[in-house]
Request: fold
Amino acid sequence: MALSVNSVIHNQWSTRMAFMLAAIGSAVGLGNIWKFPYITGEYGGGAFVLVYLVCILLIGMPVMMAEILLGRRGRRSPINTMRELARAEKTSPAWRLVGWGGVLTGFLILSFYSVVAGWAFAYVIEGAVGSFNGLDGEGAGALFGDLTDSPGRLLFWHSLFIIMTTLVVAKGVRSGLERLITWLMPLLFVLLAVLVGYAMAAGDFARGLHFLFDVNFDRVFTVCDEAGVCTFTAEPVLVAMGHAFFTLSLGMGAIMAYGSYMPHDASIGSSTVMIALADTLIALMAGLAIFPLVFANGLEPGAGPGLVFVSLPIAFGAMPGGQVFGTLFFLLLVFAAWSSSISLVEPAVAWLTEDERLSRPKAAAIIGGLAWLLGVGSALSFNVWSGEEYQVFGKTLFDIKDYLTANIMLPLGGLAIALFTGWAVGHRLPESELALRSPTLFRAWYFTIRYIAPTGIVLIFLNAIGVL
Ligand code: PHE
Reply:
């Protein structure tokens, strides 16, 4: 491929397809298979799913287009892209804070993400040695409890995952990623389809479907205390919006960094549609695989972060060939988490290596080391630091990092990106970069990024803090 002038600064993806695969690799991860089912279970099902889908459509997808276009126009790390574009468009240099905020958010996310990826890692081994065979609900709970009770095991897997991430990042985007993702994602999809099939046959599929798709706003937007007094709560809406950002990897520069390697002849609009579709499909399939099993085995949908790890092993333990399927499934989950975690550190590494400041291996080592250190606290919040004296507002360090990053930091980053693209930079920049075929389509997107997405985010924030 002919290199453009800009690729002197950054190397580019070798093909149009490669950008999309990498972006899908970033988007599809633990967010889809671990987090989506557990928060859907916690917040009561259908209505939560509906709000989440609306957020994907009206906030997530328009913001994704904005992030990609800024990245491709800037062709630098998110920090410098924001700085350069702000300078070129003669607006405030403070916009570069978006880049800095993204680097910090990426760190914080990786520091709990790697612990969950570590659970998946541990389950590859559990699956292979036959620990799932004949498990019932109680046994599955005990297996997961044994893992999270052990600081040593959690730290071991967390460390291994950080090392894996650091190694790929050290090798660079092009060589490290493209080949891997091409065949792993389709395989994950096939395995999920097998699991959905199994859930249809052996689980309580009807109840799972109702749970995921029956929209009952009362159940989601009211919380009842022990005395049966129910009050309105807007928290699920905040969590649904936060998850839309998290699952699409938006609001922290990951997609902006990937956009900076995107060739000019690739369409931002259709790439966004494909990425969002693939991501949503995988999440819904995970839900369809998990909830029928949850109900058929008397498990609690609101069981929290362990939901996937206590429900799926029951299925693997009972289905023919489950030992192979179970091992393979968790292995693919580790890979999916891996391709996401790489994008979590990409904004920081891109910045550190820009202008030959540091070599990629050095940058990767620094960042991996810091994320590892931060992650130790997440691992310990399941055992040594699980006590109330270590909690704030009833949340452990792990929960706090999860909540704060997804529900506050990413939406704030997304808000800033929407405002920057919609208001700070004039319409010519997005118009030429998006190069949408129809002017109407551009107007619809521009209206959404200027008005709908920012107002939506602000209203949801105000609602959640009780102002509205
Ligand atoms: N989107 C990833 C997932 O769903 C997580 C992620 C968030 C990755 C933010 C990069 C940036 O697992």
In short: The chain has 19 helices and two strands. The domain at 16-464 is CATH 1.20.1740 (Amino acid/polyamine transporter I). Residues 1-9 have pLDDT under 50 and may be disordered.
